[in-house]
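Hey, can you fold this one?
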Amino acid sequence: MKFKTSALVLSIAAALTACGGGGGGSGDSGSNVFNGGGSSGSNGTGATQTANAVISLVDESGAAITTVPLTGARLKIVATTKTGTAADVPMAGALVNVTSSSTDLVTVPASGSALTDANGVAYVQVKVASTSTGGATQITATAKSGTLQGQGYVQLQYPASNGSGSGGTTSYTFNSATVNYTGGATSLPTFGSVGVTFKVDGTSGAPVSLSLSSPCATSGKSSLPATVNTAADGTATVTYKDVLGCGSGGNTKDTITATLPSGVSKTVDVTVTPPQISNIQFLSSSYPVIYLPSSGCAVDQSGAGTLSCSTAST
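Sure. Predicted structure:
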């Protein structure tokens, strides 16, 4: 799975004063760093302790991204403490809570909480809600250990959902539908098979389920999978097979319909070839004798009768 990457990481340093409280301050206008409020602490020698939380959205490789995929991603929170002018120290075992200003994003676990590890790092999964209409929001992460507390903020974008929830709109659209005839052919031979490819835009690499149908598949004259998932590039290819002569009875095409979860559909026609008669099979006869007129047979069969045969294309 591939996601758009960027280096947007916003951090909040919670300045903790020795008198027990901190106020918000203005950020460095030349960077994406802002100051937030926090509580104070001391190491017993009078040196001021501060807490800092940095939050970013990362993909599976750990690279920073700014858009939440439909399949979700991880929020990475790094919590540290600082005493005086000493180097930052990981805030191990800190309680991290993540909240969003939009209900279009949900966290896993639902509480949005986790504990930092020995390196002061915690992860919380974030996903796009089924009712999302797309947009942007701010995610807040609070890291707390004892009286020390730091907050971090990050602004993220997220897409619309696939329309499975009320009020949702689809971010998926069909790009194309193609019948992959081979060898320069423009139609499917009787009882032959051919690949059919659908291309869906807006998947962001996430699998999207397509429902498939056709008149001949419904009647059993052809075989076609009922569903198929798109690949990372948004394409889905299935094999269509003429099982019982879809082109019989004067039929020249079979229309395949692919439908997205939102109900949006795309059609493509498979041109089918009528079956050719290859043999005749005897079924029954009301005549006692069947013979050629030139055979010299003297049996009188001048009366009306019935000779039944069947034709086959195999």
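DSSP finds one helix and 24 strands in the chain. Let me know if you want another pass with a different chain boundary.
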